[in-house]
Fold:
Amino acid sequence: MIGSVLLILALVLLVTTAYAGISAAPWIPTRRSDIRRLLASANIQKGETVVDLGCGDGRLVIAADTMFGAHGIGYEISLIQYLHAQWNRWRAHAKNTEIRYKSLFAADLARADVVLVFLMARVYDRLRPKLERELKPGARVIVEAWPIPGWEPAKTEKPEGRLTVYTYVRPPRPTRSSS
Structure:
């Protein structure tokens, strides 16, 4: 009986991890030494909302909370990483951090001041319209590794031996002229 339960639990954990890797990206954690650099690129201000799409172990949203005073929200669909992020949140006493077991495509980005993205480039064709539709003007999108096609970064950082970080700023929505 216990063996069957453990086998089922192991299968659930593996299936959700595989699904996360296939649907958006496998878990590749941001180096601890890059966390401050990445978050500093976003110019995070106290009280802002920072959303990490595919937050893995939650290290970025937890750091946004504990280092910058932001409200962090992480979205994760790998059950292993979701539980790991919850544990890390608890250990860090990150009271302004939420970890949600939900697809990044179901994330509500309307209140986000900063969105963190470290996903496979193949996801961008699906993600870009969501960002364009939901982000408020002035929201920053910080992307590790691959640029978003069709967007012009406000800033690009490429330290030697490190992943490139692209900073985008959501432009104001066009206003309709009354004619």
